[in-house]
Specification:
The complex is a heterodimer.
Chain A lengths: L3 E9 L2 H17 L2 E6 L6 H12 L5 E7 L4 H6 L4 E7 L8 H9 L8 E5 L16 E7 L6 H4 L1 H5 L3 E5 L11 H11 L4 E4 L8 H17 L4
Parallel strand pairs in A: 2-5, 2-6, 3-4, 3-5, 6-7, 7-8
Chain B lengths: L1 H19 L7 E7 L6 H11 L9 E7 L2 E4 L4 E3 L18 E4 L3 E9 L1
Parallel strand pairs in B: 1-2
Antiparallel strand pairs in B: 1-6, 3-4, 3-5
Classes of the chains: A alpha/beta, B alpha+beta.
């Protein structure tokens, strides 16, 4: 029993990520780049939302997109178009993006000057929630098909997001979506989140989302780091 | 498999301290993992065995202290433990208590090494 001794270490495992995220945040502030980290399960509509969002905003803003996927480049290919820089981060075994991956992806670019940088995280509601990427806005998506109690099953993702987007509302009636239940479960883990409902396919609700982004882009551009 | 990268982070932390103190063998490692951290204990134990092969931690035991979710309820004026699956709902007064006091931990606490 006494042939072992205890050595205290006391080390927070997230410290390294948080330190890199802090440096990213300073860099984004200095450049006036609004950074939006999109979280959701696979198939909630992150890429479709981005396609439609970029379509509407690309003429007015310099937009960059970092897309995290474990294996393919399909999402990045879908998002590429004139004036929008899309970079794929293939995470391999990792189920989420971390701040170091973002720093590495950006360091390979000459002086990025984005008004808006989207980070499409790996489709997963557990691991990505732990990792600060230096973003201004964390946006969690869930589709009307997913079950209204999803926020209760993945509380951290919803608790740490400032915006909750309920997507695919064009099929809400067909799947028996219960708006009151969905809203209540979001509120149960995050009373302050801004909740928006939209369908990227029909455009319903997109105006409010675009207005929110534009408001935040302006605010970030006018407030460079002191 | 979030747990693999967490296990690698633990190993890195242990190796750093061990190196500083001239320790070349580790028998046990103590960690604290919060209920809200998304870490699955069994997956972490499995990952630990996998990542420690051929390291100073090979064959060591990972002792996981699970930290329950504790929120601060403003209405009750105290710390409360929400029921599983109820989000951040105070179990006493059923209002939402968004301040997480404990439950997000992912901490390397200590290691046990030969005298």
């Amino acid at each position: 029993m006494s042939n072992l001794r205890v050595v205290a270490i006391a080390r927070n495992l997230m410290l390294k990520n948080d330190a890199i995220a802090g440096r990213l945040r300073e860099r984004f502030a200095a450049r006036g780049t609004l950074v939006v980290n999109l979280l959701s399960s696979p198939g909630s509509g992150k890429t479709t939302l981005l396609e439609k969002t970029i379509e509407q905003l690309a003429a007015r803003y310099a937009i960059g997109v970092l897309v995290g996927d474990q294996a393919t480049e399909n999402d990045a290919v879908r998002l590429r178009r004139d004036g929008v820089e899309v970079r794929q981060i293939t995470t391999g075994a990792e189920c989420r993006l971390d701040a170091e991956m973002i720093a590495t992806a950006l360091d390979n670019r000459q002086e990025e000057r984005y008004d808006l940088l989207f980070i499409e995280n790996v489709g997963n509601l557990i691991c990505p929630a732990e990792y600060d990427l230096g973003e201004d806005l964390r946006v969690v998506l869930f589709a009307v098909t997913e079950g209204e109690d999803k926020p209760l099953k993945y509380p951290l993702a919803f608790n740490t997001s400032q915006v909750a987007l309920i997507t695919k509302t064009d099929i809400a009636a067909a799947v028996g979506y219960d708006r009151a239940a969905a809203t209540a479960s979001i509120r149960q883990v995050n009373p302050e989140a801004r909740i928006l409902e939209l369908s990227a396919r029909t455009g319903q609700g997109m105006d409010e989302w675009l207005a929110l982004l534009q408001e935040r882009i302006s605010a970030k551009a006018l407030a460079p780091a002191g | 498999m979030h747990e693999i990268s967490v296990a690698l982070g633990l190993l890195e932390g242990v190796e750093t301290t061990a190196h500083e103190q001239g320790i070349d063998s580790v028998r046990a490692v103590h960690v604290r993992i919060g209920a809200m951290s998304g870490i699955v204990r069994d997956a972490l134990l499995f990952s630990w065995d996998a990542v420690t092969a051929d390291t100073i931690c090979e064959g060591s035991v990972l002792r996981v202290e699970e930290v329950p979710l504790i929120v601060y309820c403003e209405r009750c004026g105290g710390e409360r433990a929400p029921r599983p699956g109820s989000g951040l709902l105070c179990p006493e007064c059923s209002t939402v208590a968004p301040h997480v006091v404990r439950g997000r931990e992912m901490e390397l606490v200590a290691m046990e090494v030969p005298q």
